[in-house]
Write a structure and sequence with these properties.
InterPro entries: ARHD_Rieske_2Fe_2S, Rieske_2Fe-2S, Rieske_2Fe-2S_sf, Ring_hydroxy_dOase_asu_C_dom, Rng_hydr_dOase-A. GO terms for molecular function: 2 iron, 2 sulfur cluster binding; dioxygenase activity; iron ion binding. By secondary structure, the protein is of the alpha+beta class. Helix content is 28%, strand content 25%. The protein starts with a helix and ends with a helix. Bound molecules: FE2/S2 (inorganic) cluster (FES) and fe (iii) ion.
């Protein structure tokens, strides 16, 4: 009872020790805290729901999650993407019970109330009997609508209609995300429907790891490093792990690890970038996810500062607050460069001890089909349900959640005390917080501070 009342009045002051950079393990388990997270984070933040290339035609829809709320992401007659709560306003039945499809009319299977893809109410069967009643107008009986922004083709939505725009939510980090999502004329395309895997763990175990936990690579993924399945980090001597050195960028809880082009990225192709100009570097090794013939478009669509980041240390792995993970998986191409699908995950909470790990693969739309096939194969091998990399990661998350179940275990703390501090190389753009050096705890700690801010904000 005490614990409950503590959380309800001040959900985080006992859990997050700002001075010592520690978080109570109890945060990975508590059901009351979980309910507050659903209200204060998942009903407020901008959430990734997929990509508009999944629903190219009018009537196309997919069903996705915002927290534990199912939503219908549909292309309506106006050509726009609409996100509507998948809850019938009559008696709360799910309107769509398939994961995806095409429908000009969504008809509830219970009593037959019908809705358009934009969520508006059409009517109930036997119109003359007025089975929707006369107290409320048809305009008042539509599905609840979320606020939508399509960014680089990615569909984001929030229930916070009066809150910050997606652009404000991303802040300075948009500079880096533009480099990944908005760099070619054709934009990104999704490579097939997402995989979904349920993991018995609290969503924050994967959420905070996505905020640039590079350090675990050396140990948890050691067998992959030894087997050569993870590029550029094959030297598993902890003292000389070149890909651990780079530039972590972080803002508003979002973060990306930028790994120097002349360590991991080029090592895999056996190349060195020393002494080259930005143009020469990009020519030798285009940024992750970009084939050589797309380079002119990248040059056209991005600024000189962004191209410099690509040439020096391209963003390779990271996330978006609160529940997106992002990484590139490489596959060698015939021209000596590397192809790489961009993999994005959303981490969808399904209770305090369960989340869904959703895996999306992306390629630039104008990538040749045979290269896309290689990218998809490499991504499938590395990530998601069958992925050799993420089998390692997803093995740790349930253990951490289980630790939090013990009454003694939950008195332990998670520690973020390996501090690098803000260190911006002279030639690095003045965007977001920049941590240059060995990948330490800075960005992950910023993730928790963003979490704390939202949890303490007015409900
Ligand atoms: Fe949907 Fe009755 S619950 S029509
Ligand atoms: Fe990992």
């Amino acid at each position: 009872i005490n614990r409950r009342s503590t959380f309800l009045s001040d959900p985080v002051s006992d859990l997050i020790d700002v001075e010592n950079r520690e978080v109570s393990v109890a945060a990975l388990h508590d059901p009351d805290l979980y309910e507050l997270e659903m209200e204060r984070i998942f009903a407020k933040a901008w959430l990734l729901l997929g990509h508009e290339s999944e629903i190219p035609n009018v009537g196309d829809y997919v069903v996705r999650l915002m927290g534990e709320d199912q939503v219908i992401v549909a292309r309506a007659a106006d050509g726009q993407v609409h996100v509507s709560l998948n809850v019938c306003p009559h008696r709360a039945m799910h309107i769509c019970i398939a994961d995806s499809g095409n429908a000009r009319v969504h008809k509830c299977i219970y009593h037959g109330w019908a809705f358009r893809p934009d969520g508006s109410f059409i009517g109930a069967p036997i119109e003359k009997e007025k089975m929707h009643g006369e107290i409320k107008s048809k305009e008042q009986l539509g599905l609840k609508k979320a606020r939508v922004t399509v960014y680089g083709g990615l569909v984001f939505a929030t229930w916070n209609h009066d809150g910050p725009t997606l652009e404000d939510f991303l802040g300075d980090m948009k500079f880096y995300y533009d480099m990944l999502f908005c760099r070619t004329d054709g934009g990104l395309e999704i490579l097939g429907p997402p995989q979904r895997l349920t993991i018995d763990a609290n969503w924050k175990t994967a959420g905070e790891q996505s905020a640039c936990d590079g350090f675990h690579t050396l140990t948890l993924h050691q067998s992959l490093l030894e087997g050569g399945a993870m590029a550029g980090e094959e030297n598993t001597e902890h003292e000389s792990a070149p890909a651990m050195y780079g530039v972590n960028v972080s803002g508003n809880g979002h973060s990306l690890r930028c790994i120097p082009a002349d360590t991991s990225w080029a090592m895999m192709a056996g190349k060195t970038h020393a002494g080259m100009t930005d143009d020469e570097r990009l020519e030798l090794m285009p940024p992750p996810g970009i084939t050589k013939d797309l380079l002119p478009q990248v040059r056209k669509n991005l600024s000189a500062e962004q191209l410099h980041v690509f040439a020096k240390a391209p963003p390779v792995v990271g996330g978006m607050f609160p529940n997106v993970n992002l990484l590139f998986i490489y596959s060698p191409l015939r021209d000596g460069t590397l192809g790489s699908a961009m993999v994005m995950h959303s981490i969808n909470p399904k209770g305090p001890e369960k989340f869904e790990w959703v895996t999306y693969f992306f390629a630039e739309k104008d990538t040749p089909e045979e290269v896309k096939a290689m990218m998809r194969a490499a991504a499938t091998q590395g990530t998601g349900t069958s992925g050799v990399i993420e089998q390692d990661d997803s093995d740790t998350w349930p253990h951490m959640s289980e630790s939090a179940r013990g009454v003694i275990g939950r008195t332990e703390t998670l520690k973020y005390q390996a501090i690098l501090g803000e260190t911006r190389p002279d030639d690095w753009p003045d965007k977001a917080k920049v941590y240059s050096g060995f990948s330490k705890d800075d960005a992950q700690w910023n993730w928790w501070l963003a979490y704390r801010d939202l949890m303490l904000a007015e409900a």
